[in-house]
Amino acid sequence: MPIVRYDTFVERYGLRGEQIQAGTEDLAVLSGRSDSSITAFRNQEITNHLAVTGEEVVLDVGCGDGSLLEMLAPQIQQGFGTAPTDAEVQALTHAHSNPHLAFRQALVQELPFEAEVFDRIICNGVIQHLDSRGTAQQALRELARVAKRGARVFTGEIPTTDEYVEQTMRSKSLLGWLAWRWRVQGKRAFLQGAFDLARATFTSEPFIVITQTHFYCAPSEWIEMARESGLHCETWFSSKTLNRAGQVEPSKTRFDFLLVKR
Ligand SMILES: C[S@@+](CC[C@H](N)C(=O)[O-])C[C@H]1O[C@@H](n2cnc3c(N)ncnc32)[C@H](O)[C@@H]1O
Q: pLDDT confidence of 6, banded at 50, 70, 90?
């Protein structure tokens, strides 16, 4: 039974980095999305809020496949991307030979940069991978620390609900997880869970077990946490994405925040 267990999201992305190096996966898997047209759409959305003029030093924290930086490279002075594991950094460095770009290993809650270096910072689709409010607050402090005064800091796709609970299992016991689904989520979710497990037993389709919780909060809470870290929220809105038909759709559960360091 291909039951694949990850205790942290960092571990999960690190394994993806190793698969890219081994040639069994494409760089696009580092975006965490099944469709790279959504990543291209998100990149454009984010760029629209950055207002770059050509002079900026830009940091993309948890830069996924590096495509946002590649897109920005002709319009900025220098771009830095971070990923939490060496395997991802090696895959990114190999794929992007642009002299205006560099990649470093880093966690968002512990950035290896001097204070007040960056004019623009992007941290999109990353915060939900943190394990607690405390870690998320530490991440905001780090983003604020490395931002120059007046810098724009785009934090995107912050979820308001535990989206992963449907797809993942945070228990060491499969039966315990099925019992939890029956009790908390009802018969339909239980049957879906039983089906997913049966499929993993009899086919090569893996059943992914993630034991780490993920961070989510109300928009008002994120704005207050940012303010406590020295980042003022200029504007916030529902994250736009593409639906299955390729049409633009505002997310019901994820929000984007354009913050400015005062
Ligand atoms: C869903 S992908 C988003 C990638 C990219 N920002 C985008 O929007 O296409 C999540 C990214 O967060 C990174 N990541 C996961 N945990 C992290 C952490 N604690 N600190 C920094 N990056 C992290 C992953 O390596 C991955 O690049």
A: confident
Closest by CA position to 30, among listed 83, 102, 93? 83
Instruction: Work out the end-to-end distance of the chain between its first and last CA atoms, rounded to an integer number of angstroms.
Output: 53
Domain locations in the chain? 26-160+217-261, 171-210
pLDDT averaged over the chain?
A: 93
Residues in contact with ligand 1 (CB, 6 Å cut-off): 9-10, 13, 30-32, 39, 42, 61-64, 83-84, 88, 107-108, 124-126, 129-130
CA-based nearest residue to 125, from 253, 262, 260, 261: 253
pLDDT attached to residue 249: 96
Higher pLDDT: 93 or 167? It is: 93
Which value, to the nearest 10 degrees, does the dihedral of the CA atoms of residues 115, 103, 132, 145 take? Answer: 10
- Helix, strand, coil: what percent of the chain each, to 5? 40, 25, 30
Residue 129 CA to residue 158 CA, distance in Å, equals 10
Ligand 1 pocket test: which of 43, 71, 113, 126 has the largest number of ligand atoms within 8 Å of its C-beta? 126
Q: Which amino acid is at 108?
A: V
Q: Each residue of 105-125: pLDDT tens digit?
A: 999 999 999 999 999 999 999
pLDDT at res. 135: 97
Domain 26-160+217-261 has CATH 3.90.930.1: no
